[in-house]
Write a structure and sequence with these properties.
Elements lengths: L1 H20 L24 E8 L6 H20 L10 E8 L4 H13 L2 E6 L3 H14 L3 E3 L15 E3 L4 H18 L6 E7 L4 H16 L2 E8 L8 H10 L3 E5 L2 H13 L6 E5 L7 H7 L7 E4 L7 H14 L5 H20 L4 H9 L28 E6 L2 E6 L27 E2 L11 H20 L11 E2 L1
Length: 480
């Protein structure tokens, strides 16, 4: 392991020496989205993209980030020249607050379309997204789902709705498989689980139903199912006590952030005797905020969910830009909103038109390979609008960090299983990031080499971290 890192360092130093000896023509740095975009060709139109998310209420923390991520993506697209096939046409954003209510989301979709939106993005909640999809279908305006899990959204035969993330069946099916594979790799048996889930918005029940089906095929017995109302629940101690009495190997949890945090707290309160708490599309256990809010309690929690590709330097750079602009760490839901905006821009580029029907037809033919998501293959939609290559990733909180742990070829660290923060398993002491500095000509006549060298270091560091970091220091991560 040490030799591999030393080799990277030697190569970087060698490249630095060569750059000092070989002049190169001036090359412009990447566009800065904080500066005014270039002036489009005279007569180029403005194309409106609408976004609908919960900007107020209990889900506003995610909704506001998703709204901001779309605006950041649009600024970057415009700064790079806009829609080239339309003479540099610029994108503009129309924002709407669903308030977390399906009827409000529906009326806001109608408003955005009346205001000229050529495409819609939304909407974080399955119930809200279902109503928006019906409006999009009626008005022949494409909707690209950034986050909404329920299978039922696209089971209705809509022609104008597309989903980039994996649906409930895909997340739950792979989530069940990852659980069994991970346990087998650790020499552990998982034959029984209990399932705690939000049971009122359609999302939790959809995930639960798909998991139960796959679990039966894998020989896992779901010995208890416990629904709750996510926006009204204030205590889950009764459910946790009942689950403890059943004695499952693992507790599966699906829900939103606040109820997921409550479930974690109450699991510790009753000393839940399980090998792990394992989220399926759980809106809590893959969030940096969970670590901040729960402290040491957050250790060990798993979540099989959508995510960014943690091994992709471009994904990491996008998250850094978001943090610089908005002052907080970019959540996975916001990253999906960011990515979806680029996919819509790609469709508009290929359509060469702001006509919603033409954009819809281009979306149906999408073959988007340059995505920043953790699955192989391009974004491609089947006849129902589902992304045929979408897969979840399994994450675990280790040493205060949310890390990808399964499947192995996309893991930043090995999973720790069995493991609960109130149990006997001990997670290694958190390691401080190890800072690596790089100095190269990023502007001026040698910038072409300098920018590449800077990017190469970031790529190497991402690959080292994705392979587990500095093993002799408990998986310490490098930072640039």
């Amino acid at each position: 392991m040490f030799k591999k890192y030393r080799y990277v360092a030697i190569m970087v130093i060698a490249l630095s020496f060569l750059a000092a000896c070989v002049p190169d023509p001036v090359t412009e740095a990447p566009p800065d989205p904080t500066v005014a975009p270039p002036t489009p060709v005279e007569g180029a139109e403005t194309i409106f993209i609408g976004g609908i998310h919960p900007l107020t209420g209990g889900l506003a923390a995610d909704g506001i980030q998703m709204d901001n991520a779309i605006q950041m993506a649009i600024a970057e697209i415009n700064a790079s020249g806009g829609i080239q096939s339309m003479g540099g046409a610029q994108l503009a954003y129309l924002s709407a607050d669903s308030t977390g209510a399906a009827d409000v989301g529906q009326s806001e979709a109608e408003r955005l379309i009346n205001e000229g939106a050529s495409a819609l993005i939304g909407a974080f909640q399955s119930s809200v997204t279902t109503n928006i999809a019906a409006v999009a279908e009626r008005e022949s305006v494409p909707l690209v789902i950034d986050v909404a899990l329920a299978d039922a959204i696209l089971d209705q035969g809509f022609a104008y709705t597309f989903r980039v993330m994996a649906n409930a069946t895909t997340v739950s099916t792979f989530g069940a498989q990852y659980l069994l594979e991970m346990a087998a790799a650790a020499g552990e048996d998982v034959s029984t689980v209990a399932y705690l889930f939000e049971g009122t918005t359609g999302f939790g029940d959809s995930a639960r139903a798909a998991f139960v089906t796959e679990a039966a095929a894998l020989g896992i017995d779901v010995i208890g199912e416990y629904p709750y109302e996510p926006f009204a629940v204030t205590d889950l101690t009764t459910e946790m006590t009942a689950i403890n009495a059943l004695g499952p190997d693992v507790l599966i949890v699906t829900g939103y952030y606040n109820d997921g945090l409550l479930a974690a707290t109450n699991a510790e309160d009753v000393g839940l005797d399980v090998k792990a708490v394992y989220g399926i599309a759980q809106g809590t256990y893959d969030q940096a905020q969970f670590v901040a809010d729960a402290g040491d309690l957050a250790e060990c929690f798993f979540d099989a969910n959508y995510h960014w590709d943690a091994a992709n330097p471009m994904a990491l750079a996008a998250r850094d830009r978001f943090q610089d602009q908005y002052g907080e760490e970019m959540r996975a839901a916001a990253f999906l909103s960011y990515q979806v905006t680029f996919i819509i821009a790609d469709a508009i580029e290929r359509a060469g038109s702001s006509d919603p029907v033409a954009i819809r037809d281009a979306l149906a033919e999408t073959n988007y390979a340059d995505h920043l998501l953790p699955f192989a293959g391009p974004v491609q939609f089947d006849e129902t609008g589902e992304n045929i290559n979408a897969r979840p990733i399994l994450m675990q909180v280790q040493n205060g960090q949310v890390l990808q742990v399964w499947p192995p070829d996309q893991a930043e660290a090995e999973p720790i299983f069995p493991c609960t923060s109130w149990g006997e398993a001990v997670v290694v002491t958190p390691a401080e990031p190890i800072m690596i500095g790089g100095i190269h000509p990023l502007t001026g006549g040698l910038a072409a080499d300098g920018i590449q060298m800077d990017n190469a270091i970031q790529m190497a560091i991402a690959e080292i971290n994705a392979s587990g970091g500095i093993q002799s220091m408990g998986g310490a991560q490098l930072a640039y």
